[in-house]
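Predict structure. Chain length: 157.
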Amino acid sequence: EVVPCRYDEVRALRDGWFAVRREDKWGLVDEAGQEVVSCQYDEVRDFHWGLAVVRRGDQWGFVNQEGQEVVPCQYDEVRDFHWGLAAVRRGGQWGFVNQEGQEVVPCRYDEVWDFESGLAVVRLGDKWGVVNTAGEEIVQCAYTKIGVKRKIAKLRR
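Prediction complete.
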């Protein structure tokens, strides 16, 4: 018996983890059957880059494999990590957080693409630009069309 029979529902996740539900709240159990994240969230997702997406009410955040909420549930939407950063949306604006919960790219963009080859395409109004994993806008949001592939940007004013 890996997961004790004290939960209303158990779902297998990757790498030996289980999402468990008690009453209406979800938590996480490791492969040894230890409840690492108590049943306190309205939704939990699989681990990516050592962090799992969690939802409390209508706010999203991330917990680590030790059960700590490293990115507080304060975002309207979150995406999985790519290149060590996850896109997060608050108040209609997008930015990026790192695995320690720091907002490396502040939530100020209207749209963001996930990082690829260390770069992410961002949109401010109707203009596009590019940010790097350090949070620097290396291509200003001044272009009507943009594409990035293997650190090569195609731009159109």
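Summary: The chain is about 0% helix and 65% strand.
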